[in-house]
Amino acid sequence: MTPSRLIATRTIYRRHFLLLDLMVSLGITGFITYYFLVSGWSALGALDLAGRRALYASIATISASLLGFVLVAVPIVFALPPTQRLELLRKSKQYPTIFRTFMSSLTYLALTTIYVTVLLVIDTSANPHPVYGYVLVWLTVISSLRFIRAVQILGRLLDIASKRDPTDP
User: Fold this and answer.
1) pLDDT tens-digit readout, 31-62
2) How far is CA 164 from CA 84, 85, 156, in A?
3) How many CB atoms lie within 10 A of CB 122?
């Protein structure tokens, strides 16, 4: 790959990373679904009811905890002390992307939490519908990708906020 093509690819990725992460999550889910369909397994059918309930409860607990983390991180990010670097960032065109990324992370983590909580209630049969498992895989993958994005942004913003401006007294 030529350097100019690499730069163009990075530019596209940086502008549309939420869409590309969504596409990656769908691709991973599609691959896993294909594997289960070809092998004859069901995504959740290999687990008995007690095992599925334990899985649902674990995923619900983890996703709710991560949801709380991101929910607390949002006000921290937007209440960072004003510095020259942060003011430049707040005035940039990319600043709304920070908000969109956090909101997307919150949305998918909330959807995952709600979905597995509903599964705890409705999945009572010995052979669950395979779609339950495929949706669960997709929500877990997309929620993980969104959470990683939110943590990356939080880390970068805290780095920017913690660096001392040379113009500060």
Assistant:
1) 988 888 888 776 666 778 888 899 999 999 99
2) 9, 9, 14
3) 10
Q: Indicate whether 7 belongs to any domain.
A: no
Q: Which domain holds residue 38?
A: 18-162
Residue 12: inside a domain: no
Pair 136, 115: CB distance under 8 Å: yes
Yes or no: say if 18 and 101 are a contact pair by the CB < 8 Å rule: yes
Instruction: Please give the model's pTM, rounded to 2 decimal places.
Output: 0.83
Q: Is 75 left (phi over 0), alpha (psi -120 to 50) or beta?
A: alpha
> 103: burial class by Cβ within 10 Å (0-12, 13-18, 19+)?
middle
Distance from the Cα of residue 54 to its chain's centroid = 22
C-alpha distances out from residue 81 to 70, 133, 158, Å: 19, 44, 10
76-81's contacts with Cβ under 8 Å and 24+ in sequence apart are 76/154, 77/102, 77/153, 77/154, 77/157, 80/157, 80/158, 80/161, 81/161
